[in-house]
Amino acid sequence: MATTSLQFWKPGTQGPGSSLDRATESEEIIVHAPNLSALGIQAQRERLPIFKHREKLLYCIEEYGVVIVVGETGCGKTTQLPQYLYEAGWAPPGSVIACTQPRRVAATSVASRVANEVGTILGDEVGYIIRFEDVSDKDKTRICYMTDGMLFRETMIDPLLSRYSVVMIDEAHERSIYTDLLLGILKKIRRKRPALRIIVSSATLDAQGLLDYFNSNTALSNNIPPLEQKPEAVIVSLEGRMFPVEIAYLDEPTSDYVRQAVKTIWATHLQQKAPGDILVFLTGREEIERCLSELSELLPDLPKGYPQLHPLPLHAGLSTDEQLMVFEPTPRDVRKVVISTNIAEASVTIEGIKYVIDCGFVKIRTYNPSSALSSLTTVPVSRASATQRAGRAGRTAPGICYRLYTASTAQSLPPSTSPEITRTDLATPILQLKALGVDDLMKFEWVTGPPAESVLRALEHLVAAGMIGADGRLTPSGEKVAECPVEVSIARMLFSSRDYKCGEEVLTISAMVAVQDVFIIPEGAPGALAELERRKFTAEEGPLNDTQDHLTLLNAYNAFVRYGRSSSWCKNHALSFRAMSRAVSIRAQLKKYMVRFGLPFDSCQGDSKRLRQCLASGYWRNGARWVMDGSYRSVRDDKVFHVHPNSVMFNRKPKSGWVVFHEIEETKKTHMRIITEIEPDW
Ligand code: CDP
Ligand code: MG
């Protein structure tokens, strides 16, 4: 396999649909990406395309309530704009410039970059806030990167967001649910607090639609005729420059794009003499790890005389330090291969990429209102995403993008991804909106209205769970749940732990399901070892030795604490030290909520039945029953489910025949993740 030739059209012979519309300007071709780290920080900042627009941007922010900034990815919006505002005096003591991100990884990595540029320790003048992790200082922080969900949550405590002078909603083109909700709320806040400034920024946005959204309704105040009033919002376009990107497609579709990616990396490295790094898009951590491990098997076969190949992962399961490694410039004789999730599509920009390998898929959260189930689903990327991904190869010089699909598949891709609000479970967002006093959901100024059926399902669920009363308002328990920083089902579980006397255990389980990627495959170890280690926690010497995923998580947590929270212990037991430490911190934070709500910390004392009953009370919408062929059927609509291969329930028949699960993941099959057996009469 070492020297497999590529089944691609040769670069240079462009296939149908390969034109990158914007990739034509190339008056000055830089063949070697300049090594920016050799320049001073100030010089680096001034080289970014956004720098030329600094004065215009500051003027517009002074003059208008809402500035919509559209500019090529990598031109400096996320890292520079908040700094320009800060330097121009927009964040005097007592006020903060917020910049929201749909992704945690982007918030943390950008914050540490900007802290670096400002010359401060992360968490002082520049900080970040993501769920369960606040690296900011109430008094010192002037620029705060945060996930959009966290800023939305803050409106429940401070409805006018009074500590913020400017809120920048970044990556707006992604149209995450909380971006949409924030836009609606911010439009409202602006009417009450005109001093607040809003920046909406994005790489490829339907800017006109947003402009109309913000400019509607504003002229009606003060009896001033509309024409004489200054509009609320303006658009600022930052012209970017892109180099041509050659697009190559597969002749035949592949059934295994991870393996195909490995082959393509290898062939690119051997055949492409021009220096330049490789960026690979896959859909998630598991694929990235497989790709890395298959690639590392090839590395010893690298023929003499070729530059070294340096593979690096980029996904949300990494520590901030690990994430930042992808930005390190590579030495001359080394080629970097960054294997990334969608994060590298627009949220972060890595210098020096000349070759992009695009698997053509993306993992998104989808929701099916008829079954009331949401799942992580791997779907084909949109044309807009594919163009954006290819564009990553043409930032500093002409590049090549290998698409791991055929040209005819490319033509059948949907033009763009639908806003998340149209395909998500609305139970938690609606609960939060109600907590904000938005009782009439029809009157909320949606950027895109949610589907009626999803709203109905969510309301139904919230009423059935006793969180919304017959009058459509929040009940006292609904108010409390809205405050909890976890999904409705988990909050419900925490509240019913009082009845089942298992607060201690449910608290731990809630923390463990909130962190992802607890079980890892240690470097160099076969996958079977991790599997073996995981099974061990099902029979840890603890009293809860049922073979169930939730109890396995509980046992793993307890053992981690018992053995002194040691990282070497984690390594030996195929657990992620970072994930486990995060679980400890999340547990401590959730514990504070339980104290506030007066929930007791009883232990079920090894009575796993009580604990499983409590889990069933939270996961009541996520039920399935076993059928003869070894698969499951969902309780609600008889859909076929399978057990995720990582589950300790894999290939085991539950005695009762019934299970509840934490979430659904859809790839080729529909998999239930994190499963616990229950009795049908619960
Ligand atoms: O937000 P936008 O896509 O417009 O650009 P940005 O994220 O602000 O990135 C501006 C520049 O900073 C790019 O050249 C990035 O490569 C660089 N950057 C970096 O070197 N290290 C980071 N951690 C973040 C950004
Ligand atoms: Mg950005």
From TrEMBL:
Its EC number is 3.6.4.13. It catalyses: ATP + H2O = ADP + phosphate + H(+). One of its GO terms (molecular function) is hydrolase activity. GO terms for cellular component: catalytic step 2 spliceosome. Pfam families: DEAD, HA2_C, Helicase_C, OB_NTP_bind, WHD_HA2. The keyword rRNA processing does not apply. Residues 257-437 form the Helicase C-terminal domain. Belongs to the DEAD box helicase family. DEAH subfamily. Residues 58-223 form the Helicase ATP-binding domain. It comes from the Eukaryota. This is RNA helicase. Keywords: ATP-binding, Helicase, Hydrolase, Nucleotide-binding. Gene3D superfamilies: 1.20.120.1080, P-loop containing nucleotide triphosphate hydrolases.
